[in-house]
User: Fold Cytochrome P450 from Salix brachista.
Amino acid sequence: MELFPSSVDSSWWMFALPAMLQTGNLSNPLILLFVLTSFSVITFLTWAFSAGGLAWKNGRNHKGSVSIPGPRGLPCFGSLFSLSHGLAHRTLACMASSRAATQLMAFSLGSTPAIVTSDPQIAREILTSPHFADRPIKLSAKSLMFSRAIGFAPNGAYWRLMRRIASTHLFAPRRIAAHEPWRQLGCANMLSGIYDDQSLHGVVYLRKHLQNASLNNIMGTVFGKRYDLMQFNEEAKELQELVIEGFELLGAFNWSDYLPWLNYFYDPFRIKERCCHLVPRVKKLVKQIIEEHRIKKPKNLFDNSDFVDVLLSLEGEEKLEEDDMVAVLWVSACTSCLIINVVSLSLFISVLFL
Assistant:
């Protein structure tokens, strides 16, 4: 009943504008120029009077007793270009210092509103706020099924279910403690490999050893499989390739995350294409592992059981569909992996021995 009047109200200018300008339709170049000019002027005025940039329009950063200061950046682009070169944390520090933003600063990344803080108490409030769960998700994360896992799922019933499963079953203190011997064994094997490598070659490339130890920890904790990664294993190699590719896609800068209209014609890093090729490989491998666990499902569940057995044992309202299980296991594998921190760990160990 309300759809038709709403449509008429929202498009009244399409009929009124030609009449006011004494023309029959909107195809007249002058009319198009007038519309584009009006739109540009409105956009410019909105940007000019919005502290923090266009993404913070309509006074979104003035809802508290004190408004949030921040740079306007450029129309449409915000502060994207300011952060595209140099060290981002230093650029943000300079921006905050120039505007006396001592606790909180608002800025725009294209159409995405962003905030940054260096105050621990404010950071705690942000991270514990229910609105934090509704933050924008990267297109690559959404394509790689991260929106079905606890870290990226939108606030709601499904997110609360995932949080309960994670806190009660997957990351319970007793389960983490039960896997401690395996982590110690993996660390011992890594140190042994580093020693052997140094004895043979005199020079050790730590990244390989750290990646192998991290991957083996994933295989054991999440999938219940451990391998000698110094020997060739097809399944372990496939998982390693998937995790590395997933991290590269998640960490790659994608203009479409901040300027959605670019997604239709500009993708220099082929992120959409690479995600489309990666997801079928992930589903095939993880579903194969789930099926193996179904066949030899244990009668009893122990604290040192892997994530696959834990998810398969869930009953009632906690039971997940297979596609959701695939997403949870895949994201758990990625977030459990320390490949993204391998460079930092390598530098730390190098400094330690200097």
